[in-house]
Amino acid sequence: xxxxxxxxxxxxRFPADFTWGFAASAYxxxxxxxxxxxxxxxxxxxxxxxGAVVNGDTGDVACDHYHRYREDxxxxxxxxxxxxxxxxxxxRVIPAGTGAVNRKGxxxxxxxxxxxxxxxxxxxxxxxxxxxxxxxxxRGGFANPEVIGWFTxxxxxxxxxxxxxxxxxxxxxxxxxxxxxxxxxGIHAPGIKHWPTxxxxxxxxxxxxxxxxxxxxxxxxxxxxxxAIDVNQAVPATDSEDDVRAAALWHATRDWWFLDPLFxxxxxxxxxxxxxxxxHTAGIELVGIPKGSVYLDYIGLNYYRRExxxxxxxxxxDWTTDVPAGAEVTxxxxxxxxxxxxxxxxxxxxRYSPKEIVISENGAAYDxxxxxxxxxxDADRVSYLARHVAAVADARDxxxxxxxxxxxxxxxxxxWSFGYTKRFGLIRVDFPTQRRTxxxxxxxxxxxxxxxxx
Length: 454
Ligand code: FCB
Prior knowledge:
Order of helices and strands: HEHHHEHHEHHEHHEEHHHEEEHEHEEEH
Low-confidence stretches: none
Shape: globular
Strand content: 15-25%
Number of helices: 16
Number of strands: 13
Mean pLDDT: 97
Structural class: alpha/beta
Bound molecules: beta-D-fucopyranose
Largest sheet: 8 strands, parallel, barrel
Strand order of the largest sheet: 1-2-3-4-5-7-10-11
Oligomer: single chain
Radius of gyration: 21 Å
């Protein structure tokens, strides 16, 4: 055992009220996609596009969490979870996207919240984790500004049901990934490759966020509202001016693109120029959100890796990101860089001085093997987690107000276009039988939380 596995020393660096949690999302775990009136989402559609997802995997069954949520809540408690971040499937609550609320769908989240609370776990409810109703995509989806009204109605339905028990809310998960990977790169649902559409999707997510904040604030006393922003660390491949500029613009066009407006500053000038120069805003008008007010109670930070950026010319977006030869990588080929997490936390603090930052996702995929005795010895994941938790402690020591850490993920699940081939869980799921086995990392994480609480 090396020091990094020592939960007492690491846990001791955190206060007793630090939130140790787990994260997951609806489409990735629930299954039961046609049950109790759920309507089709863009992921149900996209997963069936030939070649879109490895092995043609779909979320039809996933972890069958829709049926097993009671057992899953107990497992979370066994792992020492103080909080659990999950998302609500819009298609369960309003199957056609707009119009009638489906009581049975909403009741699932009602029961889930009760079950979590009964197990001593605080729910953190995320309203949107990419699974838009297909019926709304057919009307332009998030590129259509009418989505602000649609999202407000959906939010109202969920908030009015859960407001008496839930104070921790998130509106969007990784709005940048949803805008750009799904509407410019085309590798996530709905699989569109059109930059101006992606820019509108980003703009309308921000505007929908503001509308949902009003809904939540008016219904929930002492609400805490955030957005989970994916900020990985982008570093220049060399000291050349072009590489340095490209790495800075990587952040400005994707990460500060959302955070600057949410902190009441409007879109970042350098990001605007870069997107315009690349033709991304041709023929569209961005509205953004009113300047001067902060629309976040805390920053949710999803951090996984380092991106090394090489520019091919002076032109914006004429760059590629790589993993340097010999770098430590996970099963996703993501460059493991815990010091990047400390650096990003310090940078968020410098730029925005947020009241609070919560690590809303951090974790790693590894090709776990089941040992002869049935245990799952995932020392590589323990090492990844330990080093990232230590990186959070370093940032806290430097004065960054990080109040919680939610690991991705509770259990192995549907990893989007990678289907079931990438395992991020602290619990192993044997998909054919749905058997759950706590991995070494799960036991380690529970010990860490216990070490803190002592
Ligand atoms: C994040 C997503 C989450 C999961 C992890 C690995 O980008 O929010 O759903 O796929 O990556």
